[in-house]
Amino acid sequence: MSGRTPPYARNAFVASLRSQCASEIAASRYWWVKFPQESASKLYDTQSRLIWDDDVPSRAVYSLSVAEEILEQKLIMGTPPWRLPSRVELIDFASTEGNPLRVGSSKALLGQEFWLSQEGMVDVDSDWVYADGFGCLIACSDQVSHLDTQQFVTHAIQRGWSLTSLDANHKKDPLAIMNTPAPDLASLYRDVDYRICRLPKLSDAQFSDPNLGIWEFCGEDPTELSQAKLRARDPVTDVKDWNIAIDFGTSSSVVAYDDNGRYKLLRIGAKDHWEKEQPEHYENPTVLEFIDLRSSLETWNSEAYRPNLNWDNVRCSHEALHSLRNNGSDPKVVASILSKIKHWALRHGSDNLTRIADRVNGYEYPLPALTKRDVVKGKPLTVSQDDPLDPIELYAWYLGMAINWRSRGLFLRYYMTFPVAYTRELKETILMSFRRGLQRSLPPQLLESEVFKEFCVEELANEPAAYAAAALPKLGIEPTEEGIAYGVFDFGGGTTDFDFGRYRLPTADEEDEGWEEVFEHYGNAGDAYLGGENLLENMAYLVFRHNIELCRTKRIGFVRPLDAEDFPGSEMFLLDSQSASTNSVMLLSRLRPLWEQGALPEKNGVLKLPLLNRDGEKIESELAVPVDKLVSYLTDRIGLGIQNFFSAMNKAFTGHSVESVHVLLAGNSSRSAIVQKLFEAVAGGADKDQAVTKDSPAAILGSATTLSGLLTATMLSPAGSIKPPQPPVRSESVSARATDESVPMIIVHQPLVSNPDQPYSPNGKTGVAIGLLRLAPGSPVKVISNITRDTEEAPFAHYVGRVQRGKFSPGLQQGDTYHTWKEIGVPRDRVFNLFHSQSPRAHTGEMLEGESGLHKHRLSIAGDHQGHRVYAKAIGPHQVQLCTASSLEALEAGDCSVIDALDLAKV
Q1: Same domain, 242 and 132
Q2: Phi first, then psi: what are they for 751, rounded to 5°?
């Protein structure tokens, strides 16, 4: 059309030709390469990726030093360096059948047996090396050794090279295919959606039907389109006035959209879109798989909107997870897959780099730290080859490509939800990445329209609050005038979040304003380290430690979770390396059935898998799995999280009259048999003689150590596996009330379960996204926050205090009100040893000095402050202000000495 081919069509066509050309070149090991202005051809080896040249002044023999002097002056295409091959390279070259420089069955090259290598003269027939010998000279070049075959094609075309096959019957230069004229546009665009993200291929009707057409043709000459029997489609006509809700999860993400008042779910990265829908299809794994990262990065950073990525080179979600689950013992596959992207965003930093290595080239890429790169309202995005790879942006783009599919429409309003504990800065950074990725999924023809001004990606509610908005109506719990008290225990892959409030009918004034339901929040909190993936990381760590002698013998490294203890000599095992990370991920995948299904497939408790030693070499290994120890760990750790939940519940409902609380279990990890048993112990009375007071609701649960002994026997079968619970019925719940009538009744609701006959019905995971749609602007549901924080920031995330008699005594607690001073201890000799922790054990009074998760920081206090005490106040999720004063009254009167502000995330 007008002599122009649209960018996508041109790039897709060229990529297809390049792939064909590369396949033809890779089918033969050797090719003659002809350079411009060079008389003699050189030999290209597609396996070693070296270029060989035997064109020297004569077939004379040289000493090693003279040969090196000759090669220092050798220029071909004006490009050095040419060098001597290593002994290994030379022997491999001479040993290859089909090498055109060989004569007969002998390894002799050009009839000569003695050739120079970097180590000296080599007898290629016997592989012997003579350090001081003389030999013939053959040179090699590394100029293209870093390029894969497709990149070699581009390199050769740009420099005007030509190739000749060693096969006398094959006369055609494979590079000539790159000059093939482009076919018609319909042929170019038929695979546009399939090639990028495996959406269905376009039908003939899409190009010619007057009611359909192609966005990419918008703006082209109508006359030429008509002559070609093609139809353009203005993307503005496909913009839907609907909301999109995204629950960006650690293990999986859910996308829900409002289709004319009906809430629907999306599946992304499915292998077969014709397959019958199942509820689990809509829990889209938060996973990226890099098969050819280098070429994918080049494409990703070449086009801002709808870049021509190839699904065969980089893919996401279900198919990426399928690769990991079915190749979990292949180090190359594991190293090429980035899972838990949300987890990476939370913990990634300069001291915790994540590296990925792609499948086909082994190309290693250290992921740069997540940075703020927001879109500019009203201006198109730009990209460059210097842009860092942001995996959240890339994943958001894949979500956007599935959302903004031509058979569904285009969407401009996106709402997201985050864990309670995420800081405002982290949430803003992730939102920026999603804005970029989602905007890049839109047709560029839409950018100049007036409607594009409505594009937005915003945070709407925290994850447990959104789940409550979906779960309470689904459970048949109707709002009342006084309100139904609820608490959400959202046990996900990365964190566990708590949310507390009332679900009530509107007041008369609220009803006049159009509200029909009201969610009134009283408090939220969470357990930063309690998540299904975190538990798996700790399980893998415990198994490695259980097999420490095997790891010592074979020099196998592994990764320590952030909340795990190190051990004597651990510096030799705990490595920040690709091999250590790969080992941990491989073992984690093999332990997943124990966590998710309650038993290992291996009945003997021994896992056989290849691990990587410190040198990156594959070592076949057998690891013994201490199942009982892992179950005990899980029980204790989850029990602590539940204690933390009831402690936060007590704080949230203090001052409010509450007769009963509906506890909503949410998140895929809440399906665990251990979680259900522990909550049944709460609601059913694990210890009926235990005294329960309103001031310490954690006592309902009892100590985790006691529960471990009480419940392990009932949760273990004779084979030592966790008994899976019976599938809960949606309407069933367990309730209990303590003998003290002032203590509220606890009514526990198991996670919502999917209905295969109604795939869009919410479950414990998808309910967050569906609930978010219920809270979107314009809905009749009002959300009121009574949380006493003067900021939109996340709750304070730490316990801060001192150690007394060997035990941690916190003065400043998780979730305490910002800018409120609390006494934390007394300095001694102008020094105060401040201790802080995010562990749920911190509030039990049983956390010991030196225990993992308890951190010590020495504060030097200048001046004479005899009789003063140390006070702290929370000024951010991880930041505290410190000072000394003689009393709280003196401090509030301004008579104090400020020490400094402290970032607890960095000390």
Answers
A1: no
A2: -55, 145
